[in-house]
Amino acid sequence: MALHQGYNLVTEPVADTESEMASLEFFRRLAADEEVSTPTTVTGLEDLLYNADEDERGAILSTLRQTLRSSRSLGSMDAVQFVIDGQFVDDVEFRVRVEGSDGGVYLDIGQLFVEEPKPLTSTHVVARK
Q: CA neighbours within 13 Å on the CB side: how many for 45?
């Protein structure tokens, strides 16, 4: 399966990409409007959110969403592959369940995007840019 334009959230990589970086580096580059070669693979988004204080996750997601929206580093035709170590849950809103030391935790990763991610398969969803 190939990557689609926009943000591809996958639990297993679906394509080999030109570059790979950690989520913190990816968002740092976007915030600085630095060049990001695409397609690119981004790892560790679930770790970034999981390791944040639970009461700060909403604010972090809001900041990251604004970074995605305002950055000029990515064009409308670009593809980004977020490899997530977790399980997609699409009930009331799109979330990711990750296993932590204290059991399963649900992360509201769907809040990163303008529209809720659309499932292609049980392991691949796409959000628009």
A: 28
Q: In what order do the strands lie in the sheet with 94-100?
A: 87-90, 94-100, 103-107
Residue 1 lies in a domain: no
pLDDT band at 89 (very low <50, low <70, confident <90, very high): very high
When pLDDT is cut at 50, 70 and 90, the band that residue 53 belongs to is: very high
Tokens of 73: 């580093």
Tell me the whole-structure pTM to 2 decimals: 0.93
Domain that residue 119 falls in: 6-127
Residue for token pair 């693979």: 41
Specify whether the CB–CB gap between 12 and 87 falls below 8 A: no
Please count the structural domains in the chain. Answer: 1
Q: In what order do the strands lie in the sheet with 6-10?
A: 19-22, 40-43, 79-83, 6-10, 124-127, 118-121
